[in-house]
Design brief:
With 114 residues, the chain is mostly helical. The chain contains three helices and no strands. It has a domain at 36-110. It is 75% helix and 0% strand. The chain is elongated and about 75 Å long.
Length: 114
Amino acid sequence: MTQKPKRMPPAGESLAEQVGSKATRKLKARRRGSPAVWFGLGMMGLIGWSVALPTLLGAALGLWLDQRYPAGRSWTLALLMAGLTIGCLNAWHWVSREDQAMHDEQGDDDGEHR
């Protein structure tokens, strides 16, 4: 099992200030509570749909183009891959935004400003 490295106290912070900031952080965490299971499931659903919807739209548009304008190349496959790429970028955007929000919130709790 790996251990997380401990946060080094800022220079000049006394033991009383460290204990006070940790106590404040714990009280905020208790008031806020742990994220509900429904929040996690909702986030998984959001990320799933953010990938699935552009993929399905790309495939549908590709099928329509293949039926209307038959050619040697498959529009369905090309637009399916384009939709999948757009969906993955969209999911990456959501996850990075949530991660940044969590880090900002943790930094505010610690009294740090980024």
